[in-house]
């Protein structure tokens, strides 16, 4: 069980993130959930790249075992993509707040329905 | 870490949620250091705990809202989330063991990266900027897309008159960014932006805008991507493939270094441009709102 | 340097460079010129690649970016299917961009025009990048470029509901993308490589392990979110309804199609046919979801009052036909999917362009165009004969009337169904076409058999700049309906290549 501990954390974060997104109606809270969902992926990629007795992949003569650098590169990209999505989502939330006066999903839906019954 | 996420789910005070999210990101960064992923940890600390928190606070400041009580029982979402989790558990049980040196990811592809053909000690940088440089070009483009998208979404028709920015926002921003050493183009870009914001904090955002006006910021954001792509095209023109750094100099290794350097400059330019722009956008939005409410 | 050798790189890099240039120029007209020029050269590149594929050994062109050989570097890999999709995407962009110049005048504030073009260029870059790349993680990166830019493009719509539609799409799209990353992560952990071709070789050793099956599940769900497979389609109707007309036309014709392409790529190139179709009940699930989409979404479409929303639901239904073809697991089924991907792209593109023209023609000069609801469309055929007629032809293609492209796709679907002795499916395909008859008839009835409202009898045909590109596509729906050598020929080649690589 211990060797899979990191995966358990991954799964927990994924479930929590997904739950926040689907269950919560606040637009900003949903985006927080989305960020947590995205961070769950980091561990999935990086934890298996670790080697016991290894060190960070910065080459130096005194070390011989290094952790796998490729997942690090991929996750660097994923982090940046994640923050870009978050920024865009927040900008949308700000615009929605200005247009509707609310960032609660239920209230917005009610406003839409009042305007257009179809 | 799990605790902070659990509390995060329960809380309805959005400010507390955001602070908890910042703490969570720092914890995540610590875990990443423990896993030897120093570059990733640094970025996660800067981006997750820093930039994200500032962005969230900025948006919260503009929205001024407390989360409403959920109207319906969350059983269905819980079921969806849990079943996804179960599928993941099912798959994860079959993965190679933790820290197993014989697993495929350690035997295939990676050994060549560790041979250090490019002669850059930080292998992450070598892979990021050279072997998989094209991904990084894409990543820079994603940042650029977000920046331009935010300009398109938040642009004001009229110029904001007085700028009385939320000081806390500045302070937090600088606090989170001032103390990170350069670890690559991305971090460097964040620092440049932080310096500018610091300047704005002391002399007022108006002065900052005069030093680095909007048009210059927009130029920066585009120029970075162009510089990166330009390095790629230079490779083409000199007879290599796209993004081929070997041909940039007589000595291939030196060419690699030159390519990596300019590419990193491109990333830094775009990233700092986008950060500044987003900051300007949120700041000017704030004034406009304040005026309309008065 | 020889230009011909570098076509794969230029294909994507030119639109990519055009976007920051458009931002630098800060001028609507210049930005338009830059991005349109890039789109046209991209189209030329796609044609060039399509010609090269015919002569290339094994029908595959490989291009090592940065001169790092795969799997260490990122590889661009063009095969017949990729080149076919590249043609569709860049061709649609080349048509829609000139069209959008006249339409966004009315729909988007002038000082945002250059940003609109930059976003359009980025969206095109993303879609082309997804199609051409041979690297799993690179797919994700370019997927995000195209997604982020399309969220912004949708949010540029005038109606405030465009904002909520874009937000909804952002949430759904990001969940989809995260699922795709998880799927790719599992594959990477099991094979140690990110290059798709290399992955396909190495996956054979670990074929039946749990992580590979879970990767398949996550990729399928993630991509299905993106391609709006029923029941994961909720984001699509609102997004298509409230986005600016040009954006709707472009996304409807390309974005979901590229997602289908990614699905085919993973199923056939990486996992291989036997794994996907024999080990899991996936064909059955996909068959039933497709049928529900074909009937459910088309039925919902009948009851819509907004013409854009009606055809958006019809898109969800039409995606059902594409995935139905996939579920057959045969060369003919795959051919039907690929042909329909192309055919539905041009027919829907034509319809949405015409609706855009219609909306603008109806608005008074300078006013914000109204929503195309049925009560405003009465007697349209008298006021805009060309537009109405074009929409009817597009509609006929959705139904699958002989002489239009829709017929060709449905013909191959039926052939594939007969091949498997599934006679009841033939009935289902025909029956679901009747639903399309119903919603197209609603338009015909309102436009041709109702008198226009008093005081609005005057002709107000859409401007020529809007009609011309749209009618080019309408003619294409008939042309490719009669002469199928290009479309079916390419699709058949592509399907054979895919199925062979999957074995």
SS elements, strand count of chain C: 2
> What's the count of strands of chain A?
0
Q: Share of helix among residues of chain C? A: over 70%
Regions with little confidence, pLDDT below 50 for 5+ residues of chain A: none
The CATH architecture category of chain A equals Orthogonal Bundle
Largest interface: A-B, 81 and 91 residues
Looking at this protein, list some descriptive labels.
heterotrimer; B: 294 residues; mainly alpha; 13 helices; 74% helix; disordered C terminus; C: 503 residues; two-stranded antiparallel ribbon; 20 helices; 2 strands; 2% strand; globular
Task: Characterise this structure.
The complex is a heterotrimer of chains A (118), B (294) and C (503). Chain A contains four helices and no strands. Chain A has 118 residues and is mainly α. Chain A has a single domain, classed as Orthogonal Bundle (Helix Hairpins), CATH 1.10.287.3510. By secondary structure, chain B is an all-alpha fold. Chain B has a domain of 167 residues. The two termini of chain B are 42 Å apart. In chain B, 55% of the residues are buried. Chain C contains 20 helices and two strands. Chain C has a domain of 223 residues. Chains A and B meet through helix 1, helix 2 and helix 3 of A and helix 1, helix 2, helix 3, helix 4 and helix 6 of B.
Draw up the topology in text.
The complex is a heterotrimer of chains A (118), B (294) and C (503).
Chain A: H1 5-23, H2 27-46, H3 69-100, H4 105-115
Helix pairs in contact in A: 1-2, 2-3
Chain B: H1 2-10, H2 14-34, H3 38-63, H4 75-92, H5 104-107, H6 110-114, H7 123-131, H8 133-154, H9 167-177, H10 185-203, H11 205-211, H12 214-237, H13 252-293
Chain C: H1 7-25, H2 28-55, E1 61-64, E2 75-78, H3 80-107, H4 113-132, H5 136-155, H6 161-191, H7 196-202, H8 210-227, H9 235-242, H10 245-271, H11 273-279, H12 282-302, H13 307-327, H14 331-362, H15 380-383, H16 385-399, H17 405-419, H18 423-449, H19 464-482, H20 485-502
Antiparallel strand pairs in C: 1-2
Helix pairs in contact in C: 1-2, 1-4, 2-3, 2-4, 3-4, 3-10, 3-14, 3-19, 3-20, 4-5, 4-10, 5-6, 5-10, 6-8, 6-9, 7-10, 8-10, 9-10, 9-13, 10-11, 10-13, 10-14, 10-20, 12-13, 12-18, 13-14, 13-18, 14-16, 14-17, 14-19, 14-20, 16-18, 16-19, 17-18, 17-19
């Amino acid at each position: 069980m211990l060797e899979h501990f990191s995966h358990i954390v991954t799964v927990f974060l994924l479930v929590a993130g997904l739950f926040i997104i689907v269950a919560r109606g606040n637009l900003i809270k949903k985006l927080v959930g989305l960020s947590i969902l995205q961070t769950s992926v980091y561990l999935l990629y990086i934890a298996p790249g670790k080697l016991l007795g290894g060190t960070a992949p910065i080459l130096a003569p005194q070390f011989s075992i290094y952790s796998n650098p490729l997942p690090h590169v991929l996750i660097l990209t994923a982090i940046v993509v994640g923050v870009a999505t978050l920024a865009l989502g927040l900008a949308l939330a700000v615009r929605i707040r200005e247009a509707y006066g609310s960032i609660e999903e239920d209230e917005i839906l009610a406003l839409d329905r009042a305007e257009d019954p179809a | 870490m799990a605790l902070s996420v659990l509390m995060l789910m329960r809380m309805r005070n959005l400010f507390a949620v955001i602070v908890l999210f910042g703490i969570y990101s720092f914890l995540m960064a610590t875990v990443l250091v423990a896993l030897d992923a120093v570059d990733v940890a640094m970025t996660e600390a800067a981006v997750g705990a820093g930039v994200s928190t500032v962005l969230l606070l900025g948006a919260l400041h503009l929205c001024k809202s407390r989360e409403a009580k959920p109207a319906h029982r969350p059983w269905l979402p819980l079921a969806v989330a849990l079943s996804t989790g179960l599928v993941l558990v099912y798959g994860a049980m079959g993965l190679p063991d933790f820290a197993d040196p014989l697993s495929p990811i350690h035997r295939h592809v990676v050994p060549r990266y560790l041979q250090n053909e490019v002669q850059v000690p930080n292998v992450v940088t070598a892979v990021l900027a050279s072997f998989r440089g094209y991904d990084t070009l894409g990543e820079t483009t994603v940042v650029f897309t977000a920046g331009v998208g935010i300009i398109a979404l938040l642009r004001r028709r009229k110029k904001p008159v007085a700028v009385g920015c939320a000081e806390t926002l500045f302070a937090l921003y600088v606090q989170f960014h001032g103390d990170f050493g350069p670890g690559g183009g991305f971090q460097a870009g964040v620092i440049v932006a932080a310096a500018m914001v610091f300047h704005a904090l002391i002399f007022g955002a108006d002065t900052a805008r005069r030093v680095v006006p909007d048009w210059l910021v927009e130029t920066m954001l585009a120029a970075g991507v162009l510089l990166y792509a330009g390095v790629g095209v230079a490779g083409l023109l000199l007879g290599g493939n796209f993004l081929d750094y070997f041909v940039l100099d007589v000595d291939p290794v030196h060419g690699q270094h030159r390519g990596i350097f300019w590419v990193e400059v491109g990333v830094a330019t775009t990233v700092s441009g986008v950060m500044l722009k987003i900051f300007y956008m949120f700041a000017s939005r704030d004034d406009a709102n304040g005026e309309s409410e008065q | 340097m020889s230009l011909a050798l570098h076509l794969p790189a230029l294909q994507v890099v030119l639109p990519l460079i055009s976007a920051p240039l458009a931002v630098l120029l800060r001028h609507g007209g210049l930005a338009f010129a830059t991005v349109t020029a890039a789109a046209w050269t991209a189209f030329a590149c796609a044609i060039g690649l399509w010609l090269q594929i015919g002569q290339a050994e094994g029908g595959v062109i490989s291009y090592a970016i940065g001169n790092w050989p795969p799997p260490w570097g990122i590889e661009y890999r063009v095969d017949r299917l990729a080149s076919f999709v590249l043609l569709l995407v860049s061709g649609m962009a080349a048509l829609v961009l000139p069209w959008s110049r006249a339409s966004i005048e009315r729909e988007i504030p002038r000082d945002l025009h250059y940003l609109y073009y930059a976003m359009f260029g980025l969206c095109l870059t993303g879609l082309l990048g997804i199609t051409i790349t041979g690297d799993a993680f690179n797919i994700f990166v370019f997927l995000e470029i195209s997604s982020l830019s399309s969220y912004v493009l949708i949010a540029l719509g005038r109606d405030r509901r465009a904002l909520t539609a874009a937000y909804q799409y952002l949430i759904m799209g990001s969940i989809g993308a995260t699922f795709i990353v998880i799927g790719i992560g599992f594959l990477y952990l099991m094979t140690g490589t990110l290059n798709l071709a290399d992955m396909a070789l190495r996956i054979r050793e670990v074929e039946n392990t749990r992580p590979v099956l879970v990767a398949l599940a996550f990729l399928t769900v993630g991509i299905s979110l993106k391609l709006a497979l029923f029941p994961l389609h909720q984001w699509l109707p609102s997004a298509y309804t409230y986005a600016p007309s040009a954006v709707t036309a472009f996304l409807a014709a390309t974005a979901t199609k590229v997602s289908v392409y990614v699905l085919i790529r993973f199923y056939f190139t990486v996992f291989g046919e036997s794994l996907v179709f024999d080990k899991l009940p996936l064909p059955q699930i996909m068959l039933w979801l497709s049928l529900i989409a074909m009937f459910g979404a088309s039925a919902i479409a009948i009851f819509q009052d907004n013409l854009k929303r009606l055809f958006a639901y019809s898109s969800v239904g039409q995606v059902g036909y594409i995935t139905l073809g996939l579920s057959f697991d045969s060369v003919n089924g795959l051919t039907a999917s690929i042909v329909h991907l192309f055919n539905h792209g041009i027919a829907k593109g034509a319809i949405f362009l015409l609706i855009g023209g219609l909306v603008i023609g109806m608005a008074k000069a300078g006013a914000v165009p109204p929503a195309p609801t049925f009560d405003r469309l009465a007697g349209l055929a008298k006021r805009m004969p060309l537009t109405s007629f074009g929409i009817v032809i597009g509609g006929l293609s959705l139904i699958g009337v002989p002489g239009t492209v829709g017929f060709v796709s449905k013909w191959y679907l039926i052939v594939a169904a007969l091949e498997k002795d599934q006679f009841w499916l033939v009935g289902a395909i025909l029956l679901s076409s009747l639903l399309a008859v119903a919603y197209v008839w609603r338009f015909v009835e309102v436009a041709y058999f109702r008198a226009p409202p008093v005081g609005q009898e005057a002709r107000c045909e859409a401007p020529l700049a809007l009609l011309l590109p749209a009618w080019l596509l309408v003619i294409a729906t008939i042309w490719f309906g009669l002469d199928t050598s290009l479309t079916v020929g390419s699709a058949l080649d592509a399907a054979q290549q895919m199925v062979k690589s999957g074995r």
